[in-house]
Hints:
Elements: E1 2-6, H1 10-21, E2 25-30, H2 33-42, E3 46-49, H3 55-60, E4 68-71, H4 76-88, E5 93-97, H5 104-109, E6 114-116, H6 123-131, E7 135-142, E8 145-151, H7 163-168, E9 177-183, E10 186-188, E11 201-207, H8 211-217
Parallel strand pairs: 1-2, 1-4, 2-3, 4-5, 5-6
Antiparallel strand pairs: 7-8, 8-11, 9-10, 9-11
Helix pairs in contact: 1-6
Amino acid sequence: MHIIIVGSGRTGKHIIEAALNDRQDVYVIEKDKEAANWVATNFDCVVIHGDATRCEILKEAKAEKADAIIVTTHDDAVNALVILLAKDLGIKRLVSSVNNDDLLPVFEQLGIDTVESPHRLNGRYLYRAVQGPNVKEFLDLGDGFELLEIIVEHQSSIANKLIKDLNKEKILPTDTLINLIKRNNQIIIPEGETRIFVNDIVVVLSRKNQVSAISKVFGAASLLN
């Protein structure tokens, strides 16, 4: 997957690291020369020293072929302009941090898939927005495992199925366990005869490298392979 990451501050570095660990094709655009040199020295990715609000810089990062862009600068005006340019260039998934919470509705009106405030997320959360757009929350448990809170979409292959059938038909990836279901403000501890419905919010224990596969099973059109 071809991902463009704009900005290499604290959040951007976490995203770069997470994407490279998943062996994605990463292009980083960084306006500050010293920061760009640091990324080029410490990460195995393409680094472009330039202003992402300039269309030619986005094109240098092969925006026309990009599957996703994640914008993480500290300037909301810059973030919004980059997202608009990326959208015009046809990038499929648009993810941006928003520094001023009052601007969240404005960014949502731009048609951004995921808008998050850096005050309540980190870089890995933003990267998860690309991996699994139906993943609401996640908790890193260490040792290669994490808990995901994920929505069952209409096109999900597990919708209307019993838990026991998921295991029997091997629908879920290996080392994946459904721990809890939230439905209409109720908490359900799943058993074999528990049925999963569309719009259920399911808490899943899984390996970190299974997020894209799980997201797809739950019905998201994930872009990551």
